Amino acid sequence: MAISTFMRKEIKFMLNMDQYERLLEEIHKHMDPDKFCVGGKDYGIYNLYYDTPDDYLIRTSLEKPYYKEKIRLRSYFSPAKPSDTVFLEIKKKVGGIVTKRRVTLTLAESDAYLMQRQKPVDLTKYLQKQIFSELDVFLDSYPIAPKQYISYQRSAFFGKDDPDFRLTFDRNITERRYDLSLAMPSYGAQVIAPNQRLMEVKIAGAMPLWLSEKLAELEIYKISFSKYGRAYQRFVRHQLYKAGHFQTQEAPQSAEAPASRILQKKTAASRIYRPTANGIVLP
Fold it and tell me: By C-alpha distance, which of 40, 257, 8, 1 is closest to 156?
């Protein structure tokens, strides 16, 4: 059972197709494709996020606190079989630095642990015990259950001179809040438009000069974006639509507004809120 630990900055950008294609030309000069991007193709990533009954973890995350954490189960197979490898991850962000610690299990082992706290038999290594101790504390602190499915297609690159420098592009970001199992195929609603690419720059230190210069040239700017957060905001908008809180005569509500703030405001009868598309595929 393999275990991995990561610590890095993650900087996100939203690109249109023209920006994506022009930036890709420069990337190929300085970076190599991930070994899983066979023949230049991307690969699938399939995630199941866990949260409390009142969605405390994502609501807190959307408020952009100095410290936040989340837990998810990740697979590179869809649909995943009980014997397929999955990764149970705790992801924390402290002052802009992302730390991810994960254990590698089978899907059947992850179900046994999350539902019954039954750990794999081989826990002889110290790091295995340590990370499972962190997972135990997390599960003791939060009464979690599966709340959000998110999948996407990813192409990834590593620096030719710095293998710790990683850059990814995600497309076809798909979400649903039903059929919450990695054993189910990937389907649901789209989070970004077909002509958009979510780029993440993952670095331990400073961004390379060539990339900074190209981003400035193409007018590509940093954004705040969470796949789970955006999917949750979409869910909140659905709930407000159903409750009749949206009308068309008022000024647009920013798509970046934290969902928890929207939830608080919806109780004020004198206020009406209307979202804008802002590049996002709305219901």
Answer: 40
